[in-house]
Specification:
Layout lengths: L3 E8 L5 E10 L2 H21 L7 H21 L2 E9 L6 E4 L2 E2 L4 E4 L6 E6 L2
Antiparallel strand pairs: 1-2, 1-7, 2-3, 3-4, 3-5, 6-7
Helix pairs in contact: 1-2
Amino acid sequence: MTGKRIEIESNVMDERRTTGYLEVKSFNPAEKTRNALKKLALWWGLSLVSILIPVFHFVLVPLFFFLGFFFARKGYKSEGQILNGETTCPHCGAEVKVAKGELSWPMTEICQGCARVVRMEPKA
């Protein structure tokens, strides 16, 4: 699966900036709907299975039921999916790998070198 390459600018909440990239797969409306329905089915399935758990089912069934709506809506609003990416920490200069996940701006990752939050935005 290949995606579009987006140039990004990273910072650690000060004036220092570095550049990097993200490989992104954008979703069309049909893929957004399919993604949302998968998440809804997963959480509602957990809700059905939790009926069998004595005592805890009083909390788990409604929790999973409403989490289904929450994550389905969040999945439908997602702009796309990050396939991979990389940038440099502006503070310590360590390489910061961006893991696969949902695309929502601004992106954040923890630098493994200095434990600072690296904030990433599309390059203007």
